[in-house]
Design goal:
The protein is of the alpha/beta class and 488 residues long. The protein has 2 domains: 343 residues, 3-Layer(aba) Sandwich (Rossmann fold); 130 residues, GMP Synthetase, Chain A, domain 3 (2-Layer Sandwich). Helix content is 35%, strand content 23%. It has 16 helices and 18 strands. The strands form 3 sheets. The chain has an 11-stranded mixed beta sheet with strand order 6-3-7-8-9-10-11-15-14-13-12, with helices on both faces. Strand 13 and strand 14 form a beta hairpin. Helix 8 packs across helix 9, helix 9 packs parallel to helix 11 and helix 15 crosses helix 16.
Length: 488
C-alpha cells in the first residue's frame, strides 16, 4: 500500500514471465518485456470477442495458450441480465489469488465489526448455483461453484448453505430451502446482491412470522454485498434487518476475482487488492474504443475522474476491458468507487449520464419524498414529429404506495443537474430535453421480468439502462398484467 504502482509493476512482470512460453506470450514478445511501458507497447486492449477464441481452445484440451498448462474451469458470466453468457477462464493461480483476497475480506470484516465474532457462527453465501457442467475436458458454471469446489476444507465449517442447497439452480427453491432449513442456524454474516437478499429477507420474515430478520438471526452482524450500488437499498435493508449491522461493499468480477474491498464503515469506497493476482490499467472514458487509448497506472490516475478498467490477471487475461467504470476517492491507499458500466449509459442527446449518477438521483428522490424503491431502470424517450425534444423515462417499482409524481421526478431532475453539467445544459429551460417522466410499475414487475428470462438470483442484476427498447416495453406490459390481476 505504501508503493502501489511499484507493487503492481512487480506483479505484472511476474505474470509476464510465467506466460512467456505460452502461445500468447510468444506472439506478443513477452520474453523481452521489462516494464509496464514495454507491456503496453506489446499488448493492445481487447474485449471478450477478441480473446475468447484463444481461451476456448481449452475445450479441445489445448494447453499453454494464454496461461501455462490446461485451463480446466470457466466461469459463466452474464454481466447484466441482458448480456449473453461469457465463458471466462479460471486457473488454479486465479483460485489461489481469490482465496488470498477472501482472507483479506475476513480480516476487514473483523476490523469493521469487531464484535461480530464470525468464527462463532456461520456465513451465508446467497449466490448462484454451485453445480458445474462438463464442456469437453473442462467444467463451466457460476464462479461461486468453482470456488466452492476449491474452498479449503476448514472453511466449510463456517459456511452456509450446505452443498445440496447451494447446488439448486432454481432461485426460488433455493431461497425457500434456506429460509426453512437455516432459521435456527447461528448466521452471523450474509454475502449477496442487495436486491435478491432483500427478497430473501422478506420471505424469511413471512415464513418465521417475525417482525424483522434480527428476530430470526439475532447474531447477524455483517452484510457483504457486491455487484450493484447499495445506497438505493440501504434504508429498506435496515428496516428489514431491524437493527444496525456492518454493510461491507466489495468489487468482484468473473475476470478478476475479488479486486477491491471496503475497509472503513465511514467510507463507502473500496481499497484495491494490489498483489493478489490482477494488474490494473485505467483508460479515460472519452478514449475508450480508440485505436491507441491512454492507459494509466496507479501513479498516473487522478481523483474523481471516471476511468474504464482494464485487467490483466493470473487467469491468462491480458489488457481486458472488463466493462466497468471506476473513479478514485483516494490515491494513498488506492480506493475506488464503481460508477457503472461502460456500455450502459444514457447519451442519446449528449447528456452523458452514467449509472452512478442515476443511483444517486434515486437515493436523493427517495430521501426527499420519504419512500423506498424496489428496482428501477431508465429508458430513453426519442423525439417525434409532434415533440422534437426527447427525454428520460424512469420505470420504477415501489414496495408500497408511490410518492406524488411531481416531487419525485423534480428531485431526480435536480440531482442529475447538480451532478452532470452536460445534462444540466440539455435540460436548461426544457430546451433540448423534456423533464423526466415517471412510470410506476406494479409490485413484482421486475421480479417477474427476471423470472421469465431465467435470471433470478445469483449474480444477475437489473440493468439501470435498458440495452434495448424492448426491455421497457416488456416491463410496462408485465406491469399492466399485474395491475389487471394483482393476485398473479
Amino acid at each position: 500500500m505504501a508503493h502501489p504502482a511499484q507493487t503492481q509493476e512487480r506483479l505484472l512482470l511476474r505474470m509476464v514471465r510465467r506466460a512467456a512460453g505460452t502461445l500468447w506470450g510468444r506472439t506478443h514478445g513477452y520474453p523481452a518485456i521489462r516494464s509496464v511501458r514495454d507491456f503496453q507497447a506489446a499488448v493492445t486492449p481487447c474485449g471478450y470477442d477478441d480473446i475468447a477464441p484463444l481461451w476456448h481452445r481449452a475445450f479441445d484440451g489445448t494447453r499453454d495458450v494464454t496461461w501455462p498448462g490446461h485451463v480446466r474451469f470457466f466461469a459463466l458470466s452474464s454481466g447484466t441480465t441482458a448480456e449473453a453468457a461469457k465463458a471466462i477462464p479460471v486457473t488454479h493461480d486465479a483460485i489461489r489469488a481469490n482465496i488470498r483476497s477472501g482472507i483479506t475480506l475476513t480480516a476487514l470484516c473483523d476490523h469493521q465489526a469487531p464484535h461480530a465474532n464470525l468464527a462463532a457462527g456461520k456465513t451465508l453465501y446467497f449466490g448462484g448455483c454451485t453445480q458445474l457442467e462438463p464442456r469437453g475436458p473442462c467444467w463451466q458454471g457460476d464462479s461461486s461453484g468453482i470456488m466452492a469446489r476449491h474452498m479449503p476444507r476448514l472453511a466449510w465449517r463456517f459456511r452456509l448453505p450446505e452443498p445440496d442447497v447451494a447446488a439448486l439452480a432454481d432461485w426460488e427453491a433455493k431461497a425457500e430451502a434456506i429460509c426453512n432449513r437455516y432459521r435456527a442456524s447461528p448466521v452471523r454474516a450474509i454475502a449477496g446482491l442487495p436486491s435478491w437478499t432483500l427478497l430473501l429477507f422478506r420471505r424469511l420474515i413471512d415464513l418465521a412470522g417475525a417482525s424483522c430478520v434480527a428476530d430470526v438471526w439475532p447474531g447477524l452482524r455483517v452484510f457483504i454485498h457486491f455487484g450493484m450500488a447499495f445506497e438505493p437499498y440501504r434504508e429498506q435493508f435496515q428496516q428489514l434487518v431491524g437493527r444496525p449491522i456492518a454493510c461491507i461493499d466489495t468489487y468482484s468480477s468473473s475476470e478478476g476475482g475479488l479486486n477491491a474491498i471496503q475497509s472503513e464503515q465511514g467510507d463507502p469506497s473500496m481499497q484495491l487488492e494490489l498483489d493478489a493476482g490482477a494488474f490494473y490499467e485505467f483508460v479515460p472514458l472519452a478514449e475508450l474504443g480508440s485505436p491507441e487509448p491512454t492507459r494509466l497506472t496507479l501513479d498516473q490516475v487522478e481523483l474523481d475522474t471516471p476511468y474504464a478498467l482494464l485487467l490483466s490477471t493470473v487467469a491468462g487475461i491480458w489488457a481486458y476491458d472488463v466493462g466497468d467504470v471506476v473513479r478514485f476517492t483516494s490515491l494513498s491507499p488506492p480506493k475506488i468507487i464503481v460508477a457503472g458500466r461502460t456500455r450502459l449509459s444514457l447519451n442519446t442527446f449528449g447528456e452523458h449520464v452514467i449509472q452512478e449518477e442515476l443511483e444517486r438521483a434515486v437515493t436523493a428522490a427517495c430521501e426527499a419524498t420519504g419512500v423506498n424503491v424496489v428496482e428501477f431502470t431508465v429508458a430513453t424517450v426519442l423525439p417525434t414529429a409532434a415533440e422534437p425534444r426527447g427525454g428520460h423515462l424512469w420505470l420504477v417499482e415501489f414496495p408500497a404506495a408511490p410518492p406524488p409524481t411531481d416531487p419525485f421526478t423534480a428531485r431526480l431532475d435536480q440531482s442529475l443537474c447538480d451532478d452532470n453539467l452536460d445534462y444540466r445544459i440539455h435540460r436548461a429551460n426544457d430546451y433540448a430535453m423534456l423533464p423526466p417522466r415517471l412510470a410506476v410499475l406494479a409490485p413484482g414487475t421486475f421480479y417477474e421480468w427476471a423470472r421469465r428470462r431465467g435470471h433470478l438470483g445469483g449474480q444477475h442484476k437489473i440493468p439501470r439502462v435498458p440495452p434495448s427498447p424492448e426491455m421497457a416495453h416488456e416491463l410496462q406490459a408485465i406491469s399492466a398484467e399485474r395491475h389487471a390481476n394483482p393476485c398473479a
